[in-house]
Amino acid sequence: MLFTKSISSIDQIFRKDKIGNYVKRNAKLSQGILSYALVIRQEKSNYNKPFYVWDLAQWLMDKHLEFRERYQYRPHSNTRPDNRVQYVMDRIRGLLYDLSSLQLLESAGAMHQRRGTGFVEIYKYTSAGYLIALLIESMDPAKKESATNKIYDLLNSDYRASPSSYSYGIYLIAVFKKYKEKGVFSEFLVDVLRNRLDSAMTIKDLLARLDVLYFDETEKAKMFIDIWFQTLNELEPNVKELLLHDIKLTLQTTMSKRIVVHHKAYEDRVFELRGRYDRLVLEGKCRNCSSYILMADDIVHYLRRSNLAPNVPLSGVRCIRCDKDNSIIIPLL
């Protein structure tokens, strides 16, 4: 059976309009499908055990508000339970297809159907699907602490088993531990991921650059930077250099897309500093005359300043156009 995509990105599962309504009709049902991973985890001791679509549909008939309301009153209240499930099966299968394309679920092959002699497709949740199920659960204040602990265990396990990059994985495992010890894992990781849910297109977007974060609250920004530096300085020298180089590549790519004036000069300077893992080329802007100024900055200094004083001009840097001191604002990448 061919399905027309109802959900084509993660943000469509969570995004709401200005008055608080979901922009996609099947958004809440998709959340329900993902939350079923917690039922699988509880019943089978592991979130990635295969499940029948029929079992999922039966669970949703009881848990999904739209389905409950449909069969609350006559004439639908007289519908037999099996017919109720059959009524929503195509819609659920279509969403399973959508969520599989987002790598939140995957096909687990086929199993004998419980009635008859045919086969039916079965599914299982991926680590990414289980993570989002836990993020949904964390939105319930009564369940947030438990969900947060499970998210910590899941990400720790995932990055130990298969880090996206060598130095990045080592850093995240170390910084997650510090967050947990200081009691801020929920603020610096869970809340960050939850805030990304309605803007992330893919799971890669959701988990992107958890080592480079920005916070508007001064105290939170200061604590983040302190933990960042503590973790960075405790890494082995080679791992530290690799991580800073990895961060440099990401920030430099972002900067290259925002260049306004100094296109060739920017590329020349980046090339000159290609061997410096600790130096970043930036195009700043003078708040006095609006001229764009090319400069190089230390990555560690840049990350500290962009968190603690993102809109404060660089001290001791003079604009070459208007000759004003302390007027250059660096971009927030």
Polypeptide structure, described:
With 333 residues, the protein is mostly helical. Among the domains are: 11-129; 248-333, no CATH class. Helices cover 53% and strands 10% of the residues. It contains 14 helices and six strands. The strands form two sheets. The protein has a three-stranded antiparallel beta sheet with strand order 1-3-2. The chain has a three-stranded antiparallel beta sheet with strand order 5-4-6. A hairpin with a 6-residue loop joins strand 2 (105-112) and strand 3 (119-125). Helix 2 (27-44) crosses helix 3 (53-63) and helix 6 packs antiparallel against helix 7 (144-161). It is elongated. The protein starts with 10 loop residues before the first helix and ends with a strand. The mean pLDDT is 90.
Strand content: 5-15%
The number of helical segments is 14
Spell the H/E element sequence. HHEHHHEEHHHHHHHHEEHE
Q: What strand line-up does the widest sheet have?
A: 1-3-2
Helix fraction?
A: 40-55%
What do the pLDDT scores average to?
90
Question: Which keywords apply here?
Answer:
single chain, 333 residues, mainly alpha, 3-stranded antiparallel β-sheet, elongated
Secondary structure blueprint with pairings:
Blueprint: H1 11-14, H2 27-44, E1 51-52, H3 53-63, H4 65-70, H5 81-101, E2 105-112, E3 119-125, H6 127-137, H7 144-161, H8 166-181, H9 185-196, H10 203-206, H11 218-234, H12 237-256, H13 263-272, E4 279-286, E5 292-298, H14 299-308, E6 328-329
Antiparallel strand pairs: 1-3, 2-3, 4-5, 4-6
Helix pairs in contact: 2-3, 2-6, 3-5, 6-7, 7-8, 8-9, 8-11, 8-12, 11-14
